[in-house]
Amino acid sequence: KRHFNPQFLHALIFRTSRLNSPPLSSEKSRRVSAMDGCTAASDSPYELLFQALSLIPTAHYAALLLALWLVFLYDFLEIHLLRDLATGFRGDPVKLTYNASSELYRAVASKCQVLRGRYLPTLWLCSPHIQTAFLTFFGNPPRFTYKRVMFYTSDGGTIALDWVLHSDGGGAYTSHAVPQKDDKAPIVIVIPGLTSDSVAPYIKHLVFKLAKQGWNVVVSNHRGLGGVEITSDRFYNAGWTEDSRRIIDHIHQEYPDTPLYVVGTSIGANILVKYLGEETVNVPIVGAVAVCNPWDLAIGDRFITRRFVQKLYDKALAFGLVGYAKLHQTILSRLIDWDGLKKSRSVRDFDYYATCILAKFETVDTYYRRSSSVNFVGNVAVPLLCINALDDPVCTRESIPWDECRMNPNIVLAATQHGGHLAYFEGISASTMWWVRAVSEFLEVLHSSPLKNRPRKVGPCSTTTPLESKIDQGPYVNLMEDGTVTAVGDIQRDKIAAAQPDHTAEENRETITEDEEETSKDAATSKEDPAESKPEAAASDQKKLNDLIAPMKRHITQLTRHSRTSIWLLAYIAIVTTWPVLGSGLFFYLKKKLRSFLLPALPSR
């Protein structure tokens, strides 16, 4: 017993089992002999383990590596095939967010079968990244021909308007490029996304569907896109609404009795919502649709640099922007930092070297915050449908203004679990796009509803501008590295006004003249009756003070409501992570106190 060896017993049992087993093949005999040699010659368990692993066939290792690679790709590409399988390939319901008293939902959205149904992506495109890539490189766009009309702005810019008429029949040719004056078919204006134009696959899907439905469609290409040269020093950006405003007013003047609708996609959706919020009721359109709106550009900038896969999209978008700039190098090279632009590896770099200089923004964060359409959601006064995918790899769900959309009775927000960025392919052959069907049905129901002829007026939510404080009323807002928000003063404002074009300066001079006239009138009134002017002045000062305090109170309330869960979560994490240290210290402290308390009471030996 004193010299008992467990390995000897193991070898003895193994040899005994061999005597009672049938004869082995030559290969198995060689492996068994190798194991016998390992057992007899080595006492190290690691050597035994390596020897055993070496006996596993190479094909098994290859299968294991393949399985691990598939698991990695499933997570990296956010594939949801197993989830679709678990739901029986029924798809996920569309989540609608709207105001409880919304007439738009009762009269329009509730009658849209697509919005009230489910969305199931194409099975072999069961990933937001695969869907977005398929849209970019393939897209299955329908074939038809546009008819181009050039529009010239007052500042010398050139914009290409590509028309498709309902009389074309989805491909037939007519002699006229624009609708006739007596054509009463509704007109849809489409605003493409970043670096996209009328030939983008998703734009052609939408245009073809609406034209086949009996609508006249015009795509308003951005400046410098659609094969058109830049003819002025003005360039488009995510917050530039002036071109859309001019196009909409121009088409309304040409066809005053024709209902107008607008559809914006991606950055075009941001421009559209910002335009609607700026103009409130002063828009000649009946309704609008915003698809895959980024909403908050500052949050989107953080999101697109967060993970490796998002950084790939960032580089791809930057590559497209640099390519767009190189098409117009002769003009841009004298206006911006061209050497810095050529080195741009992200959208933020491009905005730093080009957009901020051209649009006269002081910082990139200033540009993002002032151009975000989330600041104008509360002022939208026309029927608006917003469509977003929660798995959008470019426009994150974190920037969707759920509460603001719910507060505005003129907005219905449709959120889907899947869809990618502007993809939403469905069917086995991926020949149709879900959001295109949703937009066409929504516009058709809206066009036949009483809302088409209702008098447009500002709702209660439009009396104030939500999410916009008084500090943001200056031309620029700067976000410092320490988190401080500063506004540009009046001196810098005068400098910026002096640097603006002539027409802007004239508008500013007219505004200043009107303000001076009102000021002189107020001064004359105060001289005539000083006793009555003092209470009025005090009331005016109190109103201004309330106007300054009210937005701050609203923001603090919103931050408190949204951060309540986060604060408790952070407190829980702090307690759990510091408990090993704090718990040990507390244990020794209580032990010392307890010992000092009990020792005097114990009997001495």
From TrEMBL:
<keyword id="KW-0472">Membrane</keyword>
<feature type="domain" description="AB hydrolase-1">
    <location>
        <begin position="186"/>
        <end position="427"/>
    </location>
</feature>
<feature type="transmembrane region" description="Helical">
    <location>
        <begin position="567"/>
        <end position="590"/>
    </location>
</feature>
<dbReference type="InterPro" id="IPR029058">
    <property type="entry name" value="AB_hydrolase_fold"/>
</dbReference>
<keyword id="KW-1133">Transmembrane helix</keyword>
<comment type="similarity">
    <text>Belongs to the AB hydrolase superfamily. AB hydrolase 4 family.</text>
</comment>
<protein>
    <recommendedName>
        <fullName>AB hydrolase-1 domain-containing protein</fullName>
    </recommendedName>
</protein>
<dbReference type="InterPro" id="IPR000073">
    <property type="entry name" value="AB_hydrolase_1"/>
</dbReference>
<dbReference type="GO" id="GO:0034338">
    <property type="term" value="F:short-chain carboxylesterase activity"/>
</dbReference>
<keyword id="KW-0812">Transmembrane</keyword>
<dbReference type="Pfam" id="PF00561">
    <property type="entry name" value="Abhydrolase_1"/>
</dbReference>
<feature type="region of interest" description="Disordered">
    <location>
        <begin position="497"/>
        <end position="543"/>
    </location>
</feature>
<dbReference type="GO" id="GO:0047372">
    <property type="term" value="F:monoacylglycerol lipase activity"/>
</dbReference>
<dbReference type="InterPro" id="IPR050960">
    <property type="entry name" value="AB_hydrolase_4_sf"/>
</dbReference>
<feature type="compositionally biased region" description="Basic and acidic residues">
    <location>
        <begin position="503"/>
        <end position="512"/>
    </location>
</feature>
<feature type="compositionally biased region" description="Basic and acidic residues">
    <location>
        <begin position="520"/>
        <end position="543"/>
    </location>
</feature>
